[in-house]
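Quick one, tokens below:
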């Protein structure tokens, strides 16, 4: 079961390493985690005296957070709700809930370098009994994930009228949740609402018209499994920017490969398995060794291809166009990622 205690434990451990002061408040949540029998679903409504819920903290360019009015409680809160057993992760719960309640699709959201896919805040709040539904009083352990809008301005929302009464964008100091407000204000300088590269890829060529492509594994959780792609990968907490991400990924995937002339080439968006937009910085570099000499540690193989070979290959979306622009000497103006470019 994707949302088992075993799956939740790393998220909670990572969160408490960053916020050890929250441990006393999360005693009830920690009590849910040791049972790995699979008989208990920590995010199920029936798990008592408390269970996990998920929320989406969506920030716009003006450093404001999306809030909606909940009909059932009368409160103005960030979008969120209960997990369903079909949800692959807590992050997926937050993405689904913001889409259902506000109409914001995952493609209009991206994660932030500050929090990545870890919970930004875990809030504990008491829920009153609802005898008409057979629900006793209990607690919610609300995992809140941080997102930026990919749009310059907030789009028109399509609110779920049977559950939502309205929407507003609140500046950080006006947010009602004390735990969320405190964390946002503490990180205010770093949370400007502007998408930044979360992945880095290498457009590696040999100077003679060939490009090195990486065949991905056919495994669950791999982006575009079984497709040819560029070397590279996702940002991790210790990475100091996209170039550091790329160099770390090269060291993990093909240790010993050291390109020359490494420089930013283009920013673009890719789509994660959750449907989120992922800002990617593509670097260009040069290397001309034999592909079979590389010590490949991840994926199936690496191979040199010319642009005329691309139509015969299964490629990640947009890769053929990227290579052809580079081969023709077009593009290369790295800047803000736009959907026309992506």
């Amino acid at each position: 079961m994707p949302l088992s205690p075993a799956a939740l434990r790393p998220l909670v451990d990572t969160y408490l390493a960053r916020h050890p002061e929250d441990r006393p408040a999360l005693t009830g949540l920690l009590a849910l985690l040791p049972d790995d029998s699979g008989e208990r679903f920590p995010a199920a409504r029936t798990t008592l005296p408390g269970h996990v819920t998920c929320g989406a903290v969506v920030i716009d360019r003006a450093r404001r957070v999306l809030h909606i009015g909940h009909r059932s409680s009368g409160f103005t809160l960030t979008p969120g709700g209960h997990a369903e057993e079909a949800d692959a992760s807590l992050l997926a719960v937050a993405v689904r809930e913001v889409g259902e309640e506000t109409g914001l699709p995952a493609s209009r959201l991206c994660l932030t370098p500050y929090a990545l896919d870890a919970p930004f805040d875990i809030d504990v709040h008491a829920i009153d009994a609802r005898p008409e539904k057979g629900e006793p009083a209990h607690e919610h352990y609300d995992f809140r994930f941080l997102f930026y809008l990919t749009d310059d301005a907030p789009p028109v929302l399509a609110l779920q009228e049977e559950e939502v009464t309205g929407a507003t964008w609140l500046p950080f100091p006006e947010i009602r949740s004390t735990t969320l407000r405190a964390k946002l204000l503490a990180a205010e300088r770093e949370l400007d609402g502007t998408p930044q590269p979360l992945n880095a890829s290498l457009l590696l060529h040999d100077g003679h018209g060939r490009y090195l492509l990486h065949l991905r594994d056919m495994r669950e959780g791999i982006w575009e499994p079984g497709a040819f792609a560029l070397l590279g990968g996702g940002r991790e907490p210790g990475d100091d920017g996209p170039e550091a991400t790329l160099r770390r990924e090269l060291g993990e995937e093909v240790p010993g490969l050291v390109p020359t002339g490494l420089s930013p080439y283009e920013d673009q968006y890719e789509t994660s398995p959750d449907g989120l937009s992922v800002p990617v910085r593509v670097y260009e570099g040069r290397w001309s060794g034999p592909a079979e000499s590389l010590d490949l540690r991840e994926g199936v193989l690496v191979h040199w291809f010319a642009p005329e070979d691309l139509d015969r290959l299964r490629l990640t979306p947009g890769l053929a166009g990227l290579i052809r622009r580079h081969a023709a000497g077009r593009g290369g103006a790295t800047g803000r990622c736009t959907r026309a470019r992506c």
